[in-house]
Design brief:
Structural class: mainly beta
Mean pLDDT: 95
Low-confidence stretches: none
Helix content: under 10%
Number of domains: 1
Strand content: 35-45%
Radius of gyration: 13 Å
Largest sheet: 5 strands, mixed
Number of helices: 0
């Protein structure tokens, strides 16, 4: 469970199958969540291990990470 600290509301799952892309096929499978109060969105990687996905085909959506 994820909780918004500001709103004290439980975050709701927005999308499953999101890859956090650190470049060169270095991807962490994750899900995104949204706060029903303030609308803040987070990505949470339930899997602590990255996968090698050079063709970007294992997830539905990818978020290119900065830095």
């Amino acid at each position: 469970m994820y909780v918004c600290v500001a709103c004290r509301k439980e975050l709701r799952c927005l999308k499953n199958g999101v890859g956090l892309d650190y470049g060169h096929g270095h991807v962490y499978p994750s899900d995104t969540f949204v706060c029903p109060g303030c609308g803040i969105q987070i990505a949470s990687s339930g899997n602590v291990n990255a996968i090698h996905d050079p063709e970007y085909k294992s997830q539905d959506t990818y978020i290119k990470m900065e830095g």
